[in-house]
Amino acid sequence: MNLKKDALKTLKDTSRTFYIPISRLPDGLQEAVTSAYLCMRAIDEIEDHPQLDNITKVKILKNISLALQAGHQSTTHDEMTEVIKSYQHIIPEVSYRFAEWALLAPPSISARIWDATASMADRMAYWAENNWTIKTKSNLDQYTFSVAGAVGLLLSDLWAWYDNTQTNREEAIGFGRGLQAINILRNHQEDKLRGVSFIPEGWQLEDMHNYARYNLSLGDSYTKSLPKGPALQFCQIPLTLAHATLEVLILGKPKLTRHDVMALVAQVCR
């Protein structure tokens, strides 16, 4: 199996939601977005790993960041995977194969993807070191930028690289933050069980709903400004699902059903 097919299979196994819009992207852009998604999913799985203590998470994430900063397209697979070799039996496949996902990126954009992933790994290490302490809205903004708003900026760079599509970068940050706010709302009970809360002190769920709604509105503006093409097709699906998820969460339901997801995706793809 070649690397692209293997990467798409891994993508489908880890996120059916993002597999759909990524699988619809044209050649070149598809490899770039797949590389970016899997690299970031790789470090996200380490940040959230229930069997790794925070000190170990910090060490792995910082080593991944350094490996990416030192890397280049001729870097061998073995050299890049050396930094996580001893954790291969603990971390998921998407994480220990991060070097392969990094090398999937087209050479003309790989440096930007590696830089974004390295920066995110460093930020995740900071939050792990501080046990994800979110006390204020400013802390929440910092965290959601670290792990998602910055992804919006990377996507804007990928659209510009592919076909010179220009975007509002503040709205790009809101797009990422909005999606992350939905994840926080979906997972806040599980996060509580591990002693972590991403909801600022004194906030009620309604405050978090409003935070998500505001950032999703920026995501709406971001998406509406995109011309017809691959960037618009990509952004519409996760944004539509995020809005629908927020509505079911406000009603007290845990999440969208698989049937709901497929119906919404079909509606967007018409």
Radius of gyration: 18 Å
The main sheet comes to: none
Low-confidence stretches: none
Structure summary, number of beta strands: 0
Termini separation? 31 Å
Tally the helices: what do you get?
Answer: 13
CATH architecture of the largest domain: Orthogonal Bundle
Strand content: under 5%
Please state the structural category.
mainly alpha
> SSE order in H/E notation?
HHHHHHHHHHHHH
Which word captures the global form?
globular
Give a verbal description of the structure.
With 270 residues, the protein is mainly α. It has two domains: 1-131, Farnesyl Diphosphate Synthase (Orthogonal Bundle), CATH 1.10.600; 132-270, Orthogonal Bundle (Farnesyl Diphosphate Synthase), CATH 1.10.600.10. The chain contains 13 helices and no strands. Helix 3 runs antiparallel to helix 7. The protein is globular and about 50 Å long. The protein starts with a helix and ends with a helix. The mean pLDDT is 93.
